[in-house]
Amino acid sequence: MRKLQAPLLALAAACGALGAAPALAANLGALVDLARAGDAQYAAARAAADAGRERRVQGRAGLLPAVNLSGNQRRNHDYSSAYAGPGDYTSSNWALTVNQPLLRKANLEAYAQGELQSLLAEQQLKLAEQELLLRVAKGYFDVLQAQDALAAVGAQKQAFAQQLAQAKRSYEVGLAPITDVNEAQSRYDLTLAQEIAAANDLEVKRRVLEKSISAPLPPLALLDPAAGIDILGAEQAGNLAERAAEEALPVAIGRTAEQVARRELGKQAAGHLPTLDLVLSVGEARNANYGAFGGTNTHQSSVGVELALPLYQGGAVGSREREAAANLQRARHELANAQQQARLDARQAMLGVQSGSALHRALQQALQSSELQVKSTQRGFEVGVRNRVDVLNAEQQLYATRKDLAAARYQTLLAGLQLKAAAGQLTEQDLRAIDALLKE
Questions:
Q1: 390: β partners
Q2: Which residues 6+ apart lie within 8 Å of 147 measured at CB?
């Protein structure tokens, strides 16, 4: 809770610094800070990493001495006809044993495996962090896109409302047919339904982003219409796509998992091998008076080596070895699949960057053309060479183009981040760099 409060307090303090401003527009960097503290999925990944790091300690323990202390205290009652006297007596024993492995192949494999499992935990945490960054960025752009879509539908509704009012006035004075009123009414009613759907979509997108930050969503900084969206050059995008099959985090995880599986096979195969330990023991046994005999007090100590040779365990060793071999094959196939998927993801993201940039330029030109078309269609309607349906169609095309242009900008930026993630290169600084493209 304390970790979550810090970013919230910082955000609140910044809001207060604005004085009369209603609220501080949060940028991507601010949301990343909130998500690091509040995202349950990322918190679970951190806990899993903490657990995974203990595998290093557990693997090293098999190479270190094992020290055990045991003892007992008993009250005994014996009866024998050969001896006279009471058969009640007390006894106590204690022993200290130190066992130092000298030759245990399985323990050596477990030690190496523990190191790899600890590394695997770190890699999985890094992947979870990268997924968090992508999740926040996608949620951020989804909300902005939904806001733009709602604004475009609202502007379209207002334009259609004006057309409907004009059609009704013209019909009332006999200058327009009833079909113009019906057409304008139909477009207006459809836009009302679209506005409801857009508002609902915005609310859903906001809730998704709030889930990541575990806090009410503050107003978001908007993307500057004049800002460039080409955050990756063509050469840089190509290099990232080429490196993805080797440097993507899922590939690194798959490679480490394959090494863990290979060590597991070595550990299970060592079940057929002899083991050699250095054993040191110190102990004492005491018996109180027993009948006519005096008590005993025995001290014992020993040091030596113990050799064990497994001969037969019901086939369990061979079965575990075959199981480990099958798991190793599975890990190899999963690594190959991770490489293929990383290559595919990178190519798709690179195409998203390239096509998004081209689509953005095309839609910019289309927007200019749509604005000219609306003006010329309205003038044509005023002089009688165009009808009201033409005007409605031109206005609908204009607002659709504006919505598509905004979506292309967000999708292109997100594709650039996805490309970096596919190559294992996405960092928090990449998201903070996009803050320069935003405006409050």
A1: none
A2: 202, 220
- Report if pTM > 0.85: no
**Residue 200: which residues within 8 A CB-CB, separation 6 or more?**
none
Which residue type occupies 91?
A: S
Same domain? For 81 and 121 the reply is: no
Residues of the chain under the 70 pLDDT cut: 1-24, 79-87, 289-295, 440
- Shared domain check, 245 and 163: yes
- Residue 294 CB contacts under 8 Å (≥ 6 apart), including other chains: none
Contacts of 217 (CB under 8 A, 6+ apart): 143, 206, 209, 210
Same domain, 141 and 79: no
Q: Looking at the structure, tell me whether residues 192 and 157 fall in a common domain.
A: yes
Burial of 288 (0-12, 13-18, 19+ CB in 10 A): middle
DSSP string, 108-150: HHHHHHHHHHHHHHHHHHHHHHHHHHHHHHHHHHHHHHHHHHH
Confidence (pLDDT) at 294:
60
Q: Could you tell me which of 187, 196, 210, 219 has the C-alpha nearest to residue 150? A: 196
Are residues 209 and 240 located together in one domain of the fold?
yes
For 382-431, the pLDDT digits (tens) are 887 788 888 888 888 888 998 999 999 999 999 999 999 999 999 999 99
